[in-house]
Each structure stands twice: as C-alpha cells, then as structure tokens.
Amino acid sequence: MINFSILDCEASYKDSMALSPYYIDFNIDRIVKDINAYWKEDVTALYKYFPADEQGQEYRKAVYKDICKEGMVELLKEFREEMKQRKKYLENKKLTRSELQKSVITLSEIKGYARAVETLASKLATMNTESEGMNSLIKILNDYVAGDSFKQLSAKANSLRDSLDAIPIKLSYQNNFLTVSFDEVKGKYDAFLKGFSSPEQESKKSMTFFQKKNPLGDAVEVTTLEDEVLELISDKYPNVFIELNKFVKENSDYAEAFVIQLADELAFYLSFYTFEQEMSDRGLYFTPAKKSDNACLRADDLYDLALACQMIRKGEMPVANDTRLEANENFFVLTGPNQGGKTTFARSLGQLVFFSKLGLPVPAKYAEIPFYSRILTHFSVEESVETGKGKLAEELTRLAPMMEDKSQKNDFVVINELFTTAANYDACIMGKRVLDHFIGQNCHGIYVTHLQELSKEDPGIVSLRAMMNEEHKQNFKIVRSNEPALESSILLVEKHKLHYEQVVNRLKGEEA
Fold this sequence. Notes:
Blueprint: H1 21-25, H2 28-39, H3 54-67, H4 72-95, H5 99-124, H6 132-146, H7 148-165, E1 169-174, E2 177-181, H8 189-197, E3 206-211, H9 224-236, H10 238-250, H11 257-281, E4 290-291, E5 297-302, H12 305-311, E6 321-325, E7 331-335, H13 342-357, E8 366-369, E9 375-379, H14 391-404, E10 412-416, H15 424-440, E11 444-448, E12 461-468, E13 474-480, H16 487-495, H17 500-507
Parallel strand pairs: 4-8, 7-11, 7-12, 9-10, 10-11
Antiparallel strand pairs: 1-2, 1-3, 5-6, 5-8, 12-13
Helix pairs in contact: 2-11, 4-5, 4-11, 5-6, 5-7, 5-10, 7-10, 9-10
C-alpha cells in the first residue's frame, strides 16, 4: 500500500484538527462558504485540519507554489473530472438492476480510472515542479503506471472495451416483430429507440436499426427491449462476456487508495486557487507567508478577509493595517473607541495565522510569520440562559482550560474584550494575570480591551490604538502608540453632549 498525501509530508494532517472556537470567532466559516461557492463543491472538511507540524506547513506552501504554475491547474482539474466520473459510475452501479450492465459500467469505470492516472503521470512529468510533494507524486505515479499490475489492468480494460464495441448488431422491426441479427451494419441505436417509441412511427409497417456498438453503454437503466437484446448478444458472443465478468470480479479492488485520496485532497489547493483568482480580479490581494526564523511577526497591508468578501460585493474595499511584533515582543494590547475596528483587526491577525498554518497565501501584501503550535481564542460571550451563569462566570469557565494547560508553548492567542462586566480594578488584575501566563509560556497574541493600563504591564507588550481622523471619526487604522488614548473620551463627550457650552446651557435650562 502506498502511503502518500499531497497535504502533508507525513500523510498525517488529520492528526491536527483546526476546527475550534476560533473557526467561528475569526469568521473562517464565512470565508470557506465563499470558497465553496466559487469552487462549486463543498470542501469545508479540508479547511478543518492543519498539517501535523512546521515541516508539513512548509510542505503545503511549496506544493501550492507549484500548483500556481502555468498549465498545472488545468491538468489537475482534468484529472479530478475523470475521477468524479468514476464516482458517477459507482453511483450508477448501485441503481441499475441488470448484472450485465453493472459489469459494463465497471469496465468503463476502470478504463476511465486508468486513463486519468496515465494522463496525469505523463503530463506531470513535463512540468517544472520544485516542491517535495509534487516531485514525490510524480515519482510515485511513474512507478505505479510502469508496474505490471497497472499495465495489465489498463491493457485488459481497453481490450475488452474494443471487443464489446466490435460486436455488430442489426435490429429490424416489421409487422410487430423485432428481429436481431449480427451483420456488419451502420447506424445509431438511440435513433432507433426514439423512432420505435414515437406515436407517429407506430403506423409504419417496417423499421430497421443498424448499430455497431454494444447497446448497453453506461446507462443507469435499460429498457426491456435492451435487456432482451443483451441476452441475445451474450448468447451469441459468450467468450467476450465471460472474460468481462471474470475481469470485473478479479479487479474489484483495482483502485489505489492514494489515487482516490489525491483526487479529493487536490480540491484543497484548487478551491483556494479559484477563490484567490476571483478575489484578486476584484481588487483584493494575497501573499505567501514567509517563514520567520527570528520569532518576528510582520504583516503589511493586512485586512479582514471575511469582511472584505462582503465589502467587495458593494464595490467597497477594506481598510488595511501594518503590524509587527519584534523578536523580544510577545503581545499586542489594543485599545481605542468602540466601533473603531479593534475586533476586526484582531480577526485579521487570527486569519493571518490560520491561513499560514494551512499552508495557503494570507490576506496581506507581505507577511513574515513564525510557526505557531496552536491557535487559542477567547471572544466575549453573553450570559448563558442554559447554565444560569453570568457573563463573567462564563468567560472564566472558558478561560480556565486555556490557562491550566501546561503544554502551551509557542501558541498564538487572541483575546477579545475580556472581563467587561467586572470593575476596572478587578478587570486589570485578572487581565494582567492572563497576559503574564501567556507571555510566560512564550506565546504571541493580541488582547483587545478598554483597559489602557494593561498596555504598560510588561516590556514584551506592544501598545496599539484604534485611531480617529481629525474630525474625531473612526478611520479603522491601528497604530503603535504609548500616548494616553483620548479618542474614547471624545466620542463619549460628543455622544452625551458634554462639551462645556452644552453643559452650561443644560444647567441654565436651555437646549443643549
């Protein structure tokens, strides 16, 4: 048995499941829904597993780079179409009642499978591939198609198909009698059946059909007429059908598991390529994430991909931001006014790490990302009606397993609006403990909060602020800043009409 996966060098990517609360928190589910729509197949399951380790992540990046080369996408799509046809044959066999027809459908199934594999192996060998994954695939395919077992399978399938196609059949209908003979004739069987069943032909005294192919074909069902004709054919040419039945029986498990798996796994790369091209045509951009060897995280013109997918439908473009964590820095603490883009920025960082771990291009113009073992997330929740817990209790319940896990090293953590229902003093104490824990575990991440005090707690913390323009309106830009954030106060003053003149007028009983 050949053990190979185009998604992981160790063929064990399913050992690391990506499905987690952050799948929803980062709106990955919305992005994958759009990918499905453009690809026209449901590939959700393929986006729920990370490669097993850093080597697997780099393996995927290199494979995707090869797939983007000229002619590769078309070749792989062609292979997948052939394999999808095989699935249709399998479905048709379950529906048909004719055993003879099942054998013929199986023959077409095997013939199509062999053709797909041979074509893929032949054309891939001419491609300029560089990745370990594609080069391994080429070698495995070449060895497979050169093997005696495969060559005999392909040759016999083609030979049997030729034998069936060579059987001449003549059907004559006259005076309500159907005559079957086997002469060298010409004609189309479909045309005969159409004429045979049409009302206007019933008054005709005679009608002759000439056919030089097995009338069974690959149809799911055969008519009673066809069934009887087939019985006559099999009686006339017993050796052909004996060979056919023997071939089908002996090759019931003809398909190699790695070939079937390959056809399924290629949809991961091809679906994202299709999505990326569609988005690029609408003005969005992606870049392969470079591996950071010095624990530095950097992204230029990073944007929220899920939000961008919504905005471009309206002809709008998302606001992009630059971000950077130096080698001696661990955590962003992001503060700023409500509706200033803080959660959106946190999501964009989460998406950056998520797609990098999948080995796919990320939504930025430039990206340099360390390898993170896991992604952890804690987004604000409402009170639970089912458990009767308040919001703070719910948050602590969800947070506890994250902080009790002593195996945490090198994780990426996104915390959004934690402890908002607690008093500021208590929230600061709890927030500091959370940051100390994750920084102590050498994790990277972002903490979105209204507590500006948290940005001054540790030298490994980078203070970020959601900015406003000169008119004190949110512009959704996120910048490094250690200055006191006045934007939130300005917004509150304007919202509640607390400017000096407004307060004075209100005290005088005048309209503010």
